[in-house]
Amino acid sequence: MSIPFASEKHVAIAAVRRACALTDSVFNKLVKNETLTKDDKSPVTVGDYSAQAVINTILSRAFPHDPIVGEETSSDLRTSSASSLRSRITELANQALGEDLALGEMREWGIGPRQVQTEEELLDAIDRGSYGGGRSGRMWTLDPIDGTKGFLRGGQYAVCLALIIDAQVELGVIGCPNLPVDPSNPNGARGCLFVAVRGQGSQQLTLSGSSPIPLSIPAITPSNLSFLESVESAHSSHSFNSRVSKLLLVQKPPIRMDSQAKYCCLARGEGGAYLRMPTGVGYREKIWDHAPGSLLVTEAGGTITDSRGELLDFGLGRDLGENFGVIAAGKDVHDDVLAAIKQAKLEEHE
Ligand SMILES: Nc1ncnc2c1ncn2[C@@H]1O[C@H](COP(=O)(O)O)[C@@H](OP(=O)(O)O)[C@H]1O
Ligand SMILES: [Mg+2]
Ligand SMILES: [Mg+2]
Ligand SMILES: [Mg+2]
């Protein structure tokens, strides 16, 4: 019998690897007019657009019937003033798609030398990510650059892809071009790839292609935690986390990092808990910001819920629904963290 999701895993790894090579090459050459501001005031770069074009091109060749819930759309690129952005995206995407085939990759996926997509085909590929999501069926969710602000700062960012079937995450692949391969050697080699398949565990590889290392979250006592949290205080409440850490007698300072690299670090034993509490009312978390990371954590033996202890629901559409935060931690400390959050919320209302 074949291993479940083996071909999806191969395709997803190839797509994320190629997109990471692209974003990595973009960073050093990014110029000011290659970044736009979206309607919600968040930044998007030629890197985000071309990475989504590359991954969607590969997915639609390999699995033509699978819909994709992707973060970006091409509408801002179709205006007359965006012609140089369009050319740059076309150049970058074709470069990434046209790289030589690596072991296990297939020309049928639209990759390899002399595979050329037109500008129009690439814009259409970006828009194949416009699916609305939902409770039933098979779909991919893609964040071509998660942590765009981190990417622009030269910090952490992640290329994130997940396969969801009937609202359950079955496969998650996350590429982190700037993440040190060995956490005990922060100045050593960078470029990690994380892969999780439901029921098959979580693994770390390198983007350059090393053999997989299985991941598991080690046991930790609450006072030894060091909370993983966003760099951006507008994305999750730093002050709430600091109150929770006081209640748990946490000694170590938080580890601030952009993107789902936080889930990756948690899965390989760093920090012990990731807290993402809402900063105000109204913002709804997006499924592409959590789908692959959540599977990586649970397959490494951890637990992920909202701050009330409810499981995240990936079947509500493009968003996760009303925002009660996201709490990921090792199994043994997750309850303690939830109890401290409950206490901190009570104190907040006193
Ligand atoms: N007010 C808000 N609250 C929570 N998350 C937000 C937010 N505004 C934007 N985000 C999300 O935060 C993500 C980055 O997370 P982090 O802070 O962990 O690096 C962004 O992903 P993108 O960078 O892909 O747009 C974006 O989707
Ligand atoms: Mg964004
Ligand atoms: Mg994101
Ligand atoms: Mg993004």
TrEMBL record:
It comes from the Eukaryota. Its EC number is 3.1.3.7. InterPro entries: DPNP, Inositol_monoP_metal-BS, Inositol_monoP_superfamily, Inositol_monophosphatase-like. The keyword Transmembrane helix does not apply. It catalyses: 3'-phosphoadenylyl sulfate + H2O = adenosine 5'-phosphosulfate + phosphate; adenosine 2',5'-bisphosphate + H2O = AMP + phosphate; adenosine 3',5'-bisphosphate + H2O = AMP + phosphate. The keyword Ribosomal protein does not apply. Its cofactor is Mg(2+). This is 3'(2'),5'-bisphosphate nucleotidase.
